[in-house]
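Student:
Attend to each token:
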Amino acid sequence: MSKRMNFLRSIIDASSSSSVDGSNDNSANRDSGYRTGQSSLEDQNAPQLPAAGMGRGRAHVFAALLEQPKPTDGSLPLVSAMPNLAIGGRGRFLQKLLNERLPSAEPDLSKTAESGGVSCSSSEVDACTMQETLNKFDRAASLQVSEKEDTFVLRKEKEPKEYVRRTGTSGVQVQIISNFMELKCEDNRGVFLYSVDFEPNVDSKRARQQCVDSHRNIFGKAYTFDGHILLLPNALPQEKTIITTKTSTDHTPVKMTVLFRVKQKMHQNVLIYNKIFRRIMHILQLSEMGRKHYDPTQSRIVPQHKLEIWPGFVTAVDEYDGGLMLNLDVAHRVLMQTTVYTHIKTIAQCRDAQFQDNVVKSLIGSVVLTRYNNKTYRIDDVLFDLNPLCTFRYGDCDITYVEYYKKQYGIEIKDHQQPMLLNRSERKLSHNEKPLEISLCLVPELCYLTGLTDEMRKDYKVMRDIATYTRITPNQRMLAIQKFCENVNKNDAARDLLASWGLELKNTSRPMKGRQLQVEKITSGGGTVGSAGNNVDFTRQVTNNPMLEIVHIRQWMLMYTQRDERSATMFMDCVKRTCKLLGMEIAQPQIEVLPQDATQLYIQALRSHIRPGTQIVVIICPTSRDDRYAAIKRVLCTEVPIPSQIINARTLANDKRNRSIVLKILLQMNCKLGGTLWSVNIPLKETMICGIDSYHEATKRSKSVSAFVGSLDSSFTHWYSRATIQERNEELLNGMCVSLEKTLQTYRRRNCTLPQKIIIFRDGVSDSMMEVSEQYEIPQLEAACKKLAPDYAPKITFIVVQKRVITRLFSMAGRGPDGLANAPPGSVMDHTVTRRNKYDYYLVAQTVQMGTVTPTHYIVLRDDSQFSPDVLQRLSYKMCYMYYNWPGTIRVPACCQYAHKLAYLVGQSVKRMPAESLNDKLFYL
């Protein structure tokens, strides 16, 4: 938006400084009829109101300009403040801009020129000038497609970024294949954009679509129309085509004016190509759920858990380093074979007084499937005051839900007293208007639950049985992808649709040359150095050697209930036996025994029994309960700030595993007290590495939480962590400035200097928010540095980390002649499938025992230090070793995972900012 605003500001500046003649270029005015109903203003000198078809945007601004009194001396007309008109689109922005820029009193031209301001000529500014400048905007327009609605929006064409390719050289070469399928595009083919105006205006989008559909002999079979913008794979014979037609409803004569606007380049057609593949999915009769498409005919039943799994695909078309490609991956959707009605009856059998509240809590935010049309809906409310016998407006009459489903789908609703489910959605009728909220009532009897409940996710048997269908091997995944491409090319309608737009889909993926970075060496206590191994799992080295930095526990509290006394005794015995192995000294704890498992008893004991100087509190709980956990963490993170360790008594019930479990608990306790476990060699001096992530609660609609984590030492083993609570679903981190400022202050206290380089790994930024993050968040970082010292300007490297990608990388060194295997840890791919205009790379850091590994996508938005690609790639890999909750590599850099853990703890449980005294410890592990 900022570039567009700057562009329009330049238009205003140019119009106020250039000489204008009323008989200026009429060819520019000829193109000004975009959604106006007329091709040009007939009389440039007469103050006219815009025609009725000119819309609510800039036409009103032109009218207001024309109504201004014209000076008699030939000077610039004085434009007073624009009236507050009910305008939309660019008109609203131009109105605001004119109010801010144009003077309300006659300026002193000589002083203006001397001061370097805008000098005004003697020519007048009229509607022709404004129209002409906006015509330039239209001719430089590119197309943007709204993903939620089938609408297109004209935007100023951005300057095409130069081709970016930054590749590294370190590591061993490996043969890699990916799930990118080449889309061959015919030379000199493009997408031609036309605006379509109707005279008289046709309000209904459906009626406009029918008018266009009735002239397929002119437009051809392949076109896309959203009600205003028409996209064609081939140009029409004339730039301006006038067609006389009739509406299908009342047969009113209508004149359609089809005006050529621009020919789109390949990088501008990406969103259109994605819509084409969306059509192909419908041609192949796949059901759309979200942005993925599934095949209900290939469903797999898991009868023991009453589950059903639908296989499907997710697609994304983009222009990559290797050309135009389709990123295609296999997806699965888990559905329940039980209806929402059965779920409600199960809750009713509990005979709880809070029956309605329990139903609402269990259903709000969940997604249901209606099998009569294979569509999904999100449940926003449960209406107990409505039932299927209630009526709604259907056509010209009122009809009950029972009658509607009988008439429309032949379905008999059995229970006429069941409550109704409410789904709210927004639909834009026009991109200039506010979205219209649509409420839809659903019958629980016909709705099937999708996804898994929390109880199912905690059940090992359920997850194991589901994994047999969803965790497919690399060979199975690539065979499914190739089969899909073959089905597209064998289907006449799908193949013809691609051919009409000049596209051809290849059936096989292109082999590529990747690199595997060397395995890092792990440094433990006592100077012990060992290799992480091919599977990057160094559990044995961590548990059999002293920790790198040890914090001895002299004073601590152990709290448990009377029924868990045996578990507490076993825990203490195991602690005494294993702490010496880690080089840790642990004194006898302060014992607090609770009579029963009540949340209030835990809270009271923590508030009253914690002694001064207590280092950590260990609590053994009988079961895992979210409310109890949240209450304890809230007290120990805000009211009585002290590190805490909560243990489920069931994990201590297995005597054979007690030693390994207690070892991991002691490792966590050492980290929470400020100690460190291991390190890898990162040869960067005067550098701070930071991680950023955010948390959003989808179902409870609570506020979002952002977390900022920064390193405090040269070995990158000590961290400063700070959480900020912000508005709901706010992804941009407004509190980043304060967080970085406090992190830098802590860094200076520890090192007596400030870092000269700051490397930031930013997690959770989608492609659509990339530019906003670059223009909004990075300036906050610079502002935070200036607050510490006016001349402090460190070199900032800002890297976006994307882990939710559909890219897959496979090694071609698998078993068998055509066998594939997961790409080994340390695999890097920085060409062919990377973005054409971005500095990015893919990195596989972890080992996967079952299923297919998913690489992490790194995008370098800014690099003041001008690091080589090898440095950033190896640094990203090294940071994946530094997460102290897992003795191996993880998918993202440790600082990002620390930020994720902190944001999740605060957003899910604490609900308020933790105390400052805890920020220099990893208390959230």
Q: What stands out?
A: The two ends are 39 Å apart (CA to CA). DSSP finds 25 helices and 40 strands in the chain. The first helix runs from residue 2 to 17. The CA atoms of residues 473 and 803 lie 20 Å apart.
